[in-house]
Amino acid sequence: MNKYICSVCGFVYDEKLGSPDYGVNPNTKWEDLPNDWVCPWCAAPKSDFYKEETNKKEDKQLEVEEIKFEGKLNSLELSVLFSNLSRGFEKSYKPKEQKLCFEISEYYKEISNKIDGTLEDLLKLIEDDLDNAYPNAMTASKNDRGALRALVWSEKVTKILKSILSRYDEDNIKDNDIYVCSICGFIYIGNDLAKICPVCKVSNWKFEKIGVR
Amino acid sequence: MSKKYAVRNIRLCTKDCICLYVCPTGATDTEDSIIDVSKCIGCEDCFKACPSGAISMVPHVYPVQQEKEDYVINVLNNLMRSKSKQENIASGIDGRLAKAIEKSNRIMAEDLIREAGFLLPQSENTIKLLNELLKENKSNDYLKDKIEELLKLIK
């Protein structure tokens, strides 16, 4: 006996249970449901249902466990690593270590190879993150709450970046302020900043106002 | 040596009150507002008395970092790489919007690499990486000096 799930609303058709409330007897096979049968919740046709694969998720987990990180960290990635360490030392009240990591971070940023590109190029990378990288990363990290936390925040911020890049250019935001949340990277464009960050919920004094470059 | 010592958040401290009275060793009374680690005995009196919540007790030695699965580290690092690339591209584009996107990507990349094994700056992972970088940069005086100094401080 199998289960079939409505891809629109999530209704589960269980062959064993049937759907007595809607006139389908228990032990009715999916194939025996009439072709014009529709989802009792949302009226989606049979073709919008997919079969529940009991071991499908585990297979996917195995696949994502094979994903590799190629090569070593490049200069800008090392800069990211050291600016992160600098923040960590700041939080643990180690000002000397904080300063050294900041200097190393700046050094690596300075020597990194610049990549030319446009806002459209950014949008493509963002879409690839959202379509592929995040779903894989979420599956791989399902038992790691810390990793999931970072992924949930940055996925939300990435969605916001996508929305911003699809709507705005420099001209139509010239009368607005731009802020970046220094904790999660959320970007706010407007003149009425909320009290807390909508993504990570930090108080808004952690937001940084962006001035002209 | 006590296991923990007191530190002061200068942003929250009002610099004029009770930790100065309760500290048995005078560790809190310094001209730069940083509590003197060499004098602090970890008694927590200032921490319990502070009306501004400006004092924390931090350990001299941090616990061992939580282990991460390799495949979790890989997916996090791949996303970090993408964010870092986006930071790079945005840094070459004019305007406030690009500047905000550059910054946003740096913050996301930092958070991702933090979860990919660099949560504690004084962790084994960091020490291992610093030693590798030291080996690779023997002839780079600037980096060599900074990394050696950092290693000395962490150990």
Task: Summarize the structure in words.
The complex is a heterodimer of chains A (213) and B (155). Chain A has 213 residues and is mainly alpha-helical. In chain A, 42% of the residues lie in helices and 10% in strands. Chain A contains 5 helices and 6 strands. The longest helix of chain A is centred in the C-terminal third of the chain and has 23 residues, at 145-167. Chain B has a domain at 4-59: Alpha-Beta Plaits. Chain B has a two-stranded antiparallel ribbon. Chain B is extended, with a radius of gyration of 21 Å. The model of chain B has no long low-confidence stretch (mean pLDDT 94). The chains are: A mainly alpha (213), B mainly alpha (155).
- Report the sheet with the most strands of chain A, covering strand number, pairing sense and barrel closure: 3 strands, antiparallel
Low-confidence stretches of chain A: none
CATH fold node name of the domain at 4-59 in chain B? Alpha-Beta Plaits
Roughly how many Å is the radius of gyration of chain A? 24 Å
Compute the CA-based radius of gyration of chain B.
21 Å
With strands numbered from the N-terminus, the spatial order across the biggest sheet of chain B is: 1-2
What is the H-and-E element order of chain A? EEEHHHHHEEE
Shape by Cα distribution of chain B: extended
Task: Indicate the mean pLDDT of chain B.
Answer: 94
- Could you say which overall geometry of chain A the principal axes of the C-alpha atoms support? elongated
- How far apart are the first and last residues' alpha carbons of chain A, in Å? 63 Å
Oligomer: heterodimer
The secondary-structure class of chain A comes to mainly alpha
